[in-house]
Amino acid sequence: GSGECLLVKKIPPDYVPGVSPYLPSPWVLWEREKVASWYRHFMIRGREGCPGFFQYTPEIMLSYLRDPLVRQLTNNEVIGKLSTESSKLRIYQSHAPLVTRPKFTGFEKVQPQDAHYRGKLLERFSHCNQTVETDVKDLEVMLSPKIAHKPVPQESSPALS
Hints:
The protein is of the alpha+beta class. It is built from six helices and three strands.
């Protein structure tokens, strides 16, 4: 499974790490067309699998956004972090005793072909490398369950006669 929620801090284009002053900035979820095409490949080909495991349900995504370590990042409480990428292992290890190992995506064998064909793809389909950004705060609201509050029936007192 891949497809974790990659959260990225929106920084000014002229930001220079270690030089520019720290400014609290909004965070966004990055959805890359390059990765989304893997999801569609499984759907179109009718292949069994879940390449977007960590975004498989709204509940999984919401639980990630509400994780205490993720919240520290997206609330700008950690200085120097520009994405969740380098914090991913620590976030997951806070819930399960995962062993540190090299990162594998499951797509290592096709990465050289992607590098070879990406340029040709861009020539024919300029949108194939697009990234869609969704504000993290907005995303949490969108994924949160909408609970209808019904008025609680009041017990009626028996009529006095």
